[in-house]
Design brief:
Oligomer: heterodimer
CATH topology of the largest domain in chain B: Uridine Diphospho-n-acetylenolpyruvylglucosamine Reductase, domain 3
Structural class of chain A: alpha+beta
Helix content of chain B: 25-40%
Shape of chain B: globular
Largest sheet of chain A: 7 strands, mixed
Helix content of chain A: 25-40%
Strand content of chain B: 15-25%
Largest sheet of chain B: 5 strands, antiparallel
Number of domains of chain B: 3
CATH class of the largest domain in chain A: Alpha Beta
Distance between the termini of chain A: 77 Å
CATH superfamily of the largest domain in chain A: Aldehyde oxidase/xanthine dehydrogenase, molybdopterin binding domain
Largest interface: A-B, 58 and 53 residues
CATH architecture of the largest domain in chain A: 2-Layer Sandwich
Number of domains of chain A: 4
CATH architecture of the largest domain in chain B: 2-Layer Sandwich
CATH topology of the largest domain in chain A: Aldehyde Oxidoreductase, domain 4
Number of strands of chain B: 12
CATH class of the largest domain in chain B: Alpha Beta
Number of strands of chain A: 33
Number of helices of chain A: 25
Strand order of the largest sheet of chain A: 8-10-6-17-14-15-16
Order of helices and strands of chain B: EHEHEEEHHHHHHHEEEEEEEHHH
Chain lengths: 958, 323
């Protein structure tokens, strides 16, 4: 059956042994080691595996390798020649078309094919040409720009456009839109993601998921699977530790593999390791599991009813978290209100869907050290959780985070792959690699909680907020994961945008037999923010006040302690509203557009890093010690950096465990270090991926990397400069106090800049005399953040971002089809370290948020099966759906941030849902309060309204 | 994916005889855009795949007297870019241009598009539904927002093809070759309702393959178009689609063929809509009446009544394009 075929790949003939069923993508990756071809869905839905076959783009996951003889196959590795980037690759690098990089190879190959036929495509032609390549990060904006401007880039890699300089002349490397430091690797296929990494003697693991949503495991028989040749280990719940894990320490409720009950479809039941993926897959089919089926409960509101099926014994009536908070005098606030409106809103269960599925690869060193490569946002928490579950010291675990193809929150927790690969490797003594399929990713879940939100808002006749009451039921799925924090965030962030004097929040997180929900970009906030902003717009309409005007009248001001004790320092929400109003032409459009066209506004914002770490206490083994009492300060620094100068003074290595997941964290670290050290960013490299090398940073969640990681790097760089000063003084013949650091890699005598010494010479002198030139730095959030009430810590942060988005849509009133046309967004992100990357975050947020608003939803049947566990059923916006985005940054300076910077990536998502929903209401005349706002819902709402008006209208009205 | 043997057929005769040699165990494969996905999901588990791509001559578009012949292996992208086809059969070209993604259009074939299996989430998921030999169709009592509003029962799938409605509106014929010989039938008769065969969407026997599509050149005065309503603007199956081919003379509709996709288990020809147009001028009133008439027999399920209104709207919209 297996035969040798000759495949012509990137111009060379390669002889490969291929079995009839082998897919081209696997042959390229596994047999020819061309791992630039990415697998995102394995069903032709995402385009990450695109290759050119005789010049035409095709999904290599849907091609039989045995049918490829005689065809010219081009992979991403064949696009650059002799180490020189092709013009399209250079354009992707320079124009901000790359973020996580996982869609990039396919996107570039589709672009190559398009440009070959049509060197100057219009935007519409670009959209047609790239319609089969999904991107979850960029919002496609940078990609369109790169293809449009490709002709400016020459074969030698140079560009006709002018060189980029810092936008703020006070700086050299801050406010500089330099290309990402990892962009060149990502456009060439060199960037290695976890599933691209192989070790000698490596084997493959797979997890068996439950076929039912709720049941008891009566019997598991793995004997047939174990007997299959090539199978090296099969484990079940009986073979894994009894220690439960999770995210919130108070609610660890997951086992590595189910011990007794399965709580959702795809819940982890068993795992196998085998010589190859096929054998592992086959072995899964040989595991016999007998279940006692239990009735599933799938709706949060049904799950809390008496007599509903119970998931966990400890969560009575399936209520996992209760938040009951009241600030100020609610009753008086409503009594003082001139107008009160109460509405109910329902959100949707959306998932992050990064293009890269989760992956992990584990092996054990001879000395008992566990090495884990994993696609994670939070390497330290993975390390912590492995120590907790496997009962080994944290110091014996080395976590390596290769390139990560996007996360948006679904890679913030320790995954079953991390744990199972470690356990299977310990049993077999061999490196074990595991990946999720897209379907498994969706069963693993950790997406956005579907929230049922009842909100009541009272205002005076000028629209000033007097009281706000919010009651939310969050559908949490089967496990806690991040959910405790989600339930708190859904309430705590509400008073950050507007002055709310009296506020009550009741939040209930409910367990259902569905995949666990977790932290998805904007963690808990986008849906309540959508609901609040929409309610605010309804009230503005009731009172005849312009919706932007009503926001301006309530807008948060700098240096405010909110009613729930959040300490807001810099705040330019008002500036974002004014700028968005001006730039979008709001006054000429709102209320003046023809039927079927609409404009809407939403504001939002987020924390720049959580004020407290997820676990309390010190960095140490947690299962052996009781929980430490809570104190209102950080026990250990949340971000830690080492800046090491190379012995020749010509390069600097920044070491920090901050996770680069596509957002650009490493580039930010380089720019911060460059500015502080006074040298160009090109002399700086990062080593962020390896816990053996880089000190702890808590990870890429809660938008913390720029502010916290940036501060740690800045402090480490300051230490380096301080160490250099005496040596500079000695060379320059001046006092230490007279040494001045210039931004062009020189140190001079203050007041006489002709007396200067190159930076590297000072660094060399230091090394010659003292050995390694190293600085260390760390960052702890300020002590005492948050109020003295239960949950007072969630929502605390050193700084808050703010923004406002105006959205314009057109709606076909006959078909209910929404076209999200345009966003005009202004954000207060403090000082933008890299404006192009800030815009990239905003562009991505707008498109992701719009996509969530109009089309995304995980759909379940009555038994808890996911009906759309793939990327042609779970719809997200393609390049053809994506709106135009204008992203603007308002002047702002955050005293807590490095060079005044704060977050952008999550706050920018929070504005979007309401802006889109408002624009749709404006276009159609109906408020739709349930997400997603599909053609079905629009048509039903329009028809319901029509039939009501038919009923109430009297004959002869016309 | 389960292991299988690959057999490269070098002629139609060889292909059908290979299929006949492995009754119930062999499937024909062209590009495999749909079949490979089904095999990865374990829905189809053939022991033998008969590769049709190795048969020479089946990938040509040929103009003949009075008709254009389309080989079943012609890639969809070639249809979408064909000037010849665009001149005579706009509905066909417009339908091809909105199928799936550029990558899939480059690979997927005309024959494959016509023979693709339903996208129903019960059929594609881990459910032993009627279409997979099970006891019942999950849709009527289940999540049915995408299911049939016409011609449903006992199975409520909708036919996913874009090319089929267009080709039926254009009165295309299909040539079928099998081990017992060839036959040519109107493409309209190629598809079968679940009342006829609940496990298949067409009349192909296990040893038969589609070997040619013939589209008659339209009579003067004929115009055609295809409107596909999707939830997103690319790589999506139709919520509802409509192909319309109208011949007008002296300001009146002389002939009309209106065929819908995404509404029924087969491409759904609406004789009611056609009758509403014949002998009358094509205008906003008659276009709307055609839409209304087409939906008179509709029997929506719990969650898909919106498709009725949607169908009315796009039938009207498509017809208005042809004025």
């Amino acid at each position: 059956m297996i035969r040798t075929y000759t495949l012509t790949v990137n111009g060379y003939d390669r002889a490969v042994s291929i079995a009839p069923g082998e897919i081209l993508a696997d042959v390229l990756r596994d047999k020819l080691n061309l791992t630039g071809t990415k697998k995102g869905c394995n069903l032709g839905d995402c385009g990450a595996c695109t290759v050119l076959v005789d010049g035409e783009p095709m999904n290599s996951c849907l091609l039989l390798a045995s049918q490829m003889e005689g065809k010219q196959i081009t992979t991403i590795e064949g696009v650059a020649h002799n180490g020189k980037l092709a013009p399209i690759q250079k354009a992707f690098v320079e124009e901000g078309a790359v973020q996580c990089g996982y869609c990039t190879p396919g996107m570039i190959l589709s672009s190559v094919a398009l440009l070959e036929k049509n060197p100057r495509p219009t935007v519409q032609e670009i959209k047609d040409g790239l319609a089969g390549n999904l991107c979850r990060c960029t919002g496609y904006t940078g990609i369109i720009r790169a293809v449009q401007r490709c002709e400016n880039y020459r074969d030698d890699g140079t560009c006709a456009k002018k060189e980029v300089v810092a936008e703020n002349s006070r700086f050299n490397s801050i406010t500089l839109s330099m290309p990402r430091v990892d962009a060149a690797d990502k456009v060439t296929g060199r960037a290695q993601y976890t599933a691209d990494i192989a070790r000698s003697n490596m084997i493959h693991g797979k997890i068996l998921g439950s076929p039912i949503a709720h049941g008891r495991i009566k019997r598991i028989d793995v004997s047939k699977a174990k007997a299959l040749p090539g199978v090296l280990a099969v484990i079940t719940g009986a073979d894994v530790p009894d220690t439960k894990y999770g995210v919130s320490p108070a609610r660890y409720d997951e086992y590595v593999l189910a011990k007794d009950k399965v709580l959702h479809e795809g819940d982890n039941v068993a795992a196998v390791a085998a010589v190859d993926e096929r054998t592992a897959e086959k072995a899964l089919g040989l595991i016999e599991v007998e279940y006692e089926e239990l009735p599933p409960v799938l709706d949060a509101m049904e799950a809390i009813a008496e007599g509903a099926p119970q998931l966990h014994e400890r969560y009575k009536r399936n209520i996992n978290t209760v938040v009951e908070q009241t600030f100020g005098d609610l009753e008086k606030g409503f009594a003082d209100s001139d107008h009160i409106r109460e509405e109910t809103f329902i959100g949707n269960n959306t998932q992050q869907q990064p293009l890269e599925p989760h992956a992990a690869m584990a092996y054990w060193e001879y000395d008992g050290t566990l090495v884990l490569y994993t696609s994670t946002q939070a390497p330290h928490y993975v390390q912590y959780m492995l120590a907790h579950v496997l009962h080994i010291p944290l110091g014996k675990i080395r976590v390596i985070r290769p390139a990560v193809g996007g996360g948006f929150g679904c890679k913030a927790a320790t995954s079953p792959l991390d744990l199972c690969s470690a356990i299977l490797s310990r049993i077999t003594g061999r490196p074990v690699r595991m990946t999720f399929t897209r379907e498994q990713m969706m069963h693993y879940g950790r997406g956005r909680h579907k929230q049922h939100m009842k909100m009541k808002l009272g205002v005076d006749r000028d629209g000033k907020i007097k009281a706000f009451q919010s009651e939310i039921y969050l559908d949490g799925g089967a496990y806690t994961s991040f959910g405790v924090a989600t339930a708190y965030y859904a309430g705590s962030m509400m008073p950050t945008l507007y002055h709310i004097p009296n506020y009550q929040y009741h939040g209930y997180r409910v367990m259902t037999n569905k995949p666990a929900c977790g932290a998805f970009r904007g963690h808990g906030v986008p849906q309540p923010r959508f609901a609040f902003e929409l309610l605010f717009n309804m009230i503005a309409e009731d009172l005849g006040i312009d919706p932007i005007e009503i926001r301006l009248r309530n807008s948060m001001t700098p240096n405010t302690l909110t009613v729930n004790d959040l300490d807001i320092k810099s705040c330019e929400l008002t500036a974002t509203l004014l700028a968005a109003r001006e730039k979008s032409g709001w006054k000429e459009k709102f209320g003046k557009l023809p039927k079927g066209r609409g404009i809407g506004i939403g504001s939002g914002g987020f924390v720049s890093g959580a004020g407290y770490a997820i676990y309390r206490g010190q960095v140490q083994l947690s299962h052996e010690k009781g929980r430490e009492p809570f104190v209102k300060k950080s026990i250990f620094p949340h971000a830690n950096a080492i800046v090491k100068v190379n012995e020749d003074g010509m390069a600097v290595i920044v070491m920090i465990g901050a996770a680069e997941i596509g957002q650009g964290g490493e580039t930010v670290m380089v720019q911060v270090a460059a500015e502080e050290l006074g040298i160009p960013p090109s002399r700086i490299r990062t080593r962020c991926e390896d816990s053996d090398i880089s000190p702890i940073d808590l990870g890429a969640y809660s938008s913390r990397v720029t502010l916290m990681g940036g501060n740690a790097v800045k402090h480490a760089a300051t230490m380096v400069v301080e160490k250099m000063k005496p040596y500079a003084a000695a060379i320059l013949g001046c006092s230490e106090g007279e040494v001045k650091l210039l931004r062009d890699a020189r140190m001079v005598v203050a007041g006489d800049e002709t007396r200067s010494v190159p930076w590297e010479e000072v660094a060399r002198k230091y090394f010659n005399d003292r050995g390694p030139l190293v600085g260390t730095g760390c960052y702890k959030p300020p002590d005492g953040l948050g109020g003295d009430f239960k949950g007072g810590t969630v929502g605390t942060s050193p700084a808050y971002s703010f923004g406002s988005s105006v959205c314009e849509v057109s709606v076909d009133l006959e078909t209910g089809k929404v076209k999200v046309e345009r966003f005009t967004d202004f954000h207060d992100c403090g000082t933008p370290i890299n404006p192009q990357m800030v815009h990239g975050q905003v562009e991505g947020s707008m498109v992701m948020g719009a996509s969530e608003t109009v089309m995304e939803d995980v759909q379940f049947d009555k038994m808890g099966h996911i009906l759309n566990p793939n990327l042609h059923g779970y719809l997200m916006m393609t390049i053809k759906d994506a709106p135009e985005v204008f992203s603007g940054i308002v002047d702002s300076y955050e005293p807590e941030g490095p060079f005044g910077a704060k977050e952008i990536g999550e706050g920018s998502t929070c504005t979007v849902l309401a802006a889109v929903a408002h624009a749709i209401a404006n276009a159609t005349g109906v408020w739709i309060k349930e997400l997603p706002i599909t053609p079905e819902r629009i048509m039903n709402a329009i028809h319901a309204k029509q039939s009501i008006s038919e009923v109430v209208s009297t004959p002869g009205d016309d | 994916m389960k292991a299988f043997a690959n057999k490269n057929a070098t002629s139609i005769r060889e292909a059908v005889s290979l299929l006949a040699q492995h009754p119930g165990k062999a499937l024909p494969i062209a590009a495999g855009s749909d079949l490979l996905g089904e095999m990865k999901d374990g829905i189809e588990t053939p022991e033998v795949l008969v590769n049709l791509k190795t048969i020479p001559g089946l990938d040509k578009i040929r103009q003949q007297s009075g008709a254009v012949s389309i080989g079943p292996l012609v890639p969809v992208a070639e249809v979408a870019e064909s000037q010849l086809l665009h001149t005579h059969f706009p509905a066909f070209v417009e339908a091809a241009a909105v199928i799936a993604s550029p990558q899939i259009r480059n690979v997927g074939t005309v024959g494959g598009n016509l023979c693709q299996r339903p996208r129903c989430w019960y059929y594609r998921g881990p459910f032993r539904c009627l279409r997979k030999g099970g006891e019942f169709c999950y849709a009527p009592m289940g999540e049915n927002r995408y299911h049939a509003i016409l011609g449903g029962g006992p199975s409520f799938i909708v036919h996913p093809s874009d090319l089929a409605p267009a080709l039926i509106a254009l009165d295309a014929k299909a040539r079928i070759s099998g081990s017992s010989g060839d036959r040519t039938i109107p493409l309209e008769q190629f598809f079968v309702l679940p009342t006829v065969n609940v496990q298949r969407e067409n009349i192909l026997r296990p040893d038969e393959i589609l070997t040619e599509i013939l589209i008659p050149l339209p009579a003067p005065g004929t115009r055609s178009t295809y409107w596909k309503q999707m939830e997103r603007d690319a790589w999506d199956f139709a919520l509802v689609s409509v192909a319309a081919a109208i011949r007008q003379r002296d300001g009146k509709v002389e002939q009309a063929r209106i065929v819908m996709g995404g509404v029924a288990p087969i491409p759904w020809r609406s004789h009611e809509a056609e009758a509403a147009l014949i002998g009358r001028p094509l205008d906003a009133t008659t276009a709307a009446q055609a839409g209304d008439k087409a939906m008179e027999p509709a029997q929506p399920l719990r969650d898909n009544a919106y498709k009725v209104a949607l169908s009315r709207a796009i039938i009207r919209g498509a017809l208005l394009r042809l004025i």
